[in-house]
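DM between two lab members

TW: hey, do you still have the Methionine aminopeptidase entry open?
JB: yeah, one sec
JB: this one, 255 aa:
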Amino acid sequence: MVELKTDTSIDAMYEAGQVVARALTAAQKAAGVGVSLLELDEVAHDVLREAGATSPFLGYRPSFAPTPFPAVLCVSVNDAIVHGIPTRYRLRDGDLVSIDFGAELGGWVGDSALSFVVGTPREADLRLIETAERALAAGIEAAVVGNRIGDIAHAIGTVCRAAGYGIPEGFGGHGIGRRMHEDPGVPNEGRPGRGMRLRHGMALAIEPMVIAGGTDTFHAAPDGWTLMTDDGSRAAHAEHTVAIMESGPRILTAR
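TW: and the structure you got?
JB:
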């Protein structure tokens, strides 16, 4: 069931989304050679505390997970696609890092992700990240009243495939609002003109994930959470929470 949000509720979601934006900005700024993933998680946790917000990630346990998620920030490095658990691993020069963060404030949730390179970047990694960001922008551009979920999926998939990248099979975006994961699902590839029609008041987390090696397959790391590329190639992730408005898409987690 899809809950249509009032304009007042969307304003409240924006406040939650801005906590997310501040946390991601702070974590990216803190990331550097020698910094541990646990330290980045603590930076994000500090932003939550200062805002009086809580984490929809911490303690979350979907059906596939062997244990509740133990952190407030997902940190996925190099060939990790998404859902990376922060550890004592210390970042190295050239690491490709994807961070994903959510916040709940006043009963509403925001969710966003970005990717970047620590230290000296490789051109291939910059192209991968830029493609994820362009795919996100294309998906958001298609998120307008009267379009369908398939239009968003097609826009994302077209950008990723044109660049020669893979798209993790079965993973994509989702509805969001009072809970982190709500209906409808938002695939990262699909046919235009198909699926649920977009209406004013819908809120979606749109999140392309791309695999440099061009494959669509992945496997779970031993922790049962982190999704890894099967071919060992690097991955990037970009995400925003977006409200569907008569005036056009409103990015609630804009940084």
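TW: got it. The chain has a mean pLDDT of 98. The chain has four helices and 13 strands.
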